[in-house]
Amino acid sequence: MTRTPVNVTVTGAAGQIGYALLFRIASGHLLGADVPVKLRLLEIPQGLKAAEGTAMELDDCAFPLLRGIEITDDPNVAFDGANVALLVGARPRTKGMERGDLLEANGGIFKPQGKAINDHAADDIKVLVVGNPANTNALIAQAAAPDVPAERFTAMTRLDHNRAVSQLAKKAGVSVSDVKRLTIWGNHSATQYPDIFHAEVAGKNAAEVVNDEQWLADTFIPTVAKRGAAIIEARGASSAASAANAAIDHVHTWVNGTAAGDWTSMGIPSDGSYGVPEGIISSFPVTTKDGKYEIVQGLEINDFSRARIDASVKELVEERDAVRGLGLI
Ligand SMILES: NC(=O)c1ccc[n+]([C@@H]2O[C@H](COP(=O)([O-])OP(=O)(O)OC[C@H]3O[C@@H](n4cnc5c(N)ncnc54)[C@H](O)[C@@H]3O)[C@@H](O)[C@H]2O)c1
Ligand SMILES: O=C(O)C[C@H](O)C(=O)O
Fold it and tell me: In the annotation, is 252 catalytic?
């Protein structure tokens, strides 16, 4: 049976994450080895030439699943009929820029893109925001798309999740595939909380296996939460291949489902679960099935976790209030 190609829009396509992402989408890693894709690359005018170069390279790979590439600087064209949108392009913080300036500059990107998604995307559109500040950029885009169900707008905390899995596996001396049910709560920022109290390593409770609260508080949590800054310090550029890999994982899991007995972490609009104010886009433990996700319910939250979840959620509330004050939502 010939499948209809899935339209995948990538913004910031000429950037470093875009370069690490597009070849994997075109080779079937995003949606599946039997799912043809059409790519739409959105760039600002200065980025169009580089995006054309990447498109030439995509052609040169002769990927059997790649059924077309369109390059544009017009969001209305880029999101027309889009089934999956990866919002990667964002305004980085530059010297002397205050947090409010950064939120305002990104509002100028994510508000029109949200509106274009609202007006032109396919009914089944799924949106992943990667561009920082990812959670609040997702909130801005979602607020500009009132006709799209809010839960279709998500923010990426899968990179944090993968980082935490890897660090925990090292500490416990197990393979990453032995680590399950880890959770990132809150914001994709240094306040995020990687939670191992419900995680398992090789079928045993991770916190009990590790049995080292000092390592948890002083090593594990800061290593995961500050990993983005450590990569920038080491590479002289922010994470790119690992971020692209996490974007692939996020969408693949959303579309194809979590494994039985496991869950993942996604930044999603809160429904009020675990005391996280409704509407803010915060990271939760989720299971996915048939293209939908559900927050894992009923986890007991101890005092150690509660304080850290609350601190990250507080930051998200402040970011929401700031963009509200700027008239962006
Ligand atoms: N959520 C995460 O885990 C995570 C991880 C790593 C990086 N990031 C973020 O991802 C973003 C992209 O990172 P990068 O390394 O690819 O940056 P980059 O600077 O290499 O590329 C960004 C690209 O976006 C383009 N762009 C800017 N404004 C645009 C717009 N309005 N429409 C379309 N394209 C636009 C730029 O021209 C550039 O080509 C950054 O905000 C970064 O902080 C997030
Ligand atoms: O781009 C950044 O500031 C860091 C990035 O969000 C990361 O977590 O690697």
Answer: no
